[in-house]
Amino acid sequence: MISIMKEPEQISTLSLAILGLVSQQPRSGYDIRKMFSSTPMGHFSASPGAIYPALKRLEKCEWIQGQRQNSETLRPKLEYSLTPAGRQNLEKYVSQPITPEDVIWRMDELMLRFAFMENIVGLPTTFQFLQQFLAQVEAYVCTLQEFRREFPEESSLTGRLALENGIEGYQANARWARRAIAELKQKISIEE
Amino acid sequence: MISIMKEPEQISTLSLAILGLVSQQPRSGYDIRKMFSSTPMGHFSASPGAIYPALKRLEKCEWIQGQRQNSETLRPKLEYSLTPAGRQNLEKYVSQPITPEDVIWRMDELMLRFAFMENIVGLPTTFQFLQQFLAQVEAYVCTLQEFRREFPEESSLTGRLALENGIEGYQANARWARRAIAELKQKISIEE
DNA sequence: AATTTCATGTAACCAGTTACATGATTCA
DNA sequence: TGAATCATGTAACTGGTTACATGAAATT
Question: pLDDT category, B2, cuts 50, 70, 90?
Answer without folding.
Answer: very low
